[in-house]
Amino acid sequence: MPQLNVKVADTAPDEPALTAYDQEHAVTYARLLDAEADNADWREVAHIVLHIDPTTEPERAQRAFESHLARAKWMARHGYRHLLREGRPGSKT
């Protein structure tokens, strides 16, 4: 079950399949996509959503933000299919 404030890795997965990390961070990905749609500053998003202070860890914050946003976009384009497949009764992955 996705949770609101889970700890994030320095970089998001980049595998061509849905991972346990993706499932755990689905809410994080949605929040990143919402922030992008609102033209939010990446530093604010890194601080609020990813819980990484861009003032004290600028490189880590930017790397985490960029990789998680890229993964969020992948999820929106492709990964959701894996979630839908897993959510069907009797489906196998």
UniProtKB/TrEMBL annotation:
InterPro entries membership: RovC-like_DNA-bd
Domain named T6SS Transcription factor RovC-like DNA binding: residues: 9-85
One Pfam family hit: RovC_DNA-bd
The protein's name: Uncharacterized conserved protein
